[in-house]
Amino acid sequence: MLSLLYQEGPSTEGIFRRSGSAKICKELKEKLDSGAEVDLACESIFVTASLFKDFLRNIPGSILSSQLCDKWVSVMDQGNNEERIKSIQRLIEQLPRANVVLLRYIFGVLHGIEMRSEENQMNAFNLAICIAPSLLWPPVSSTPDVESEFTKKISSLVQFLTENCCRIFGEEINSLFGEI
Description:
10 helices, GTPase activation, RhoGAP_dom
């Protein structure tokens, strides 16, 4: 999935903004959940993007860990960018290894898409609006006003992560997918 998004996402206008066919997504999700082989290259890239966001939303406790939710939310309230980057790196160290590996690939994809935002209309802000709700959610439900404020803060965090991913995850993030 990520490989396809890395390949096709940068040249696709509105990637992560436009949804794939709900019927096709449901059918493919059922096949994937049953362990069947699925060739996503034959599907619309919007279907792949929708499936990927669904996958992220179904990670128990979220990929960024709902247990660390308050700490993630407070990162953007810190002083300068250097302090924010150091705080993010400390939080990443607290995540399970599998989450960290997946995050590196996710932000490798987002960075690649952002680098061609003039073509695809998906700058870091737009990507964050679309993907942030799939990366972290509060451990308990709350009022719509509180959830709206939370979404804004997490979107701001994801935008910052995307814009600074090379400094946060290392320059090798640019070569994670090799020569595809």
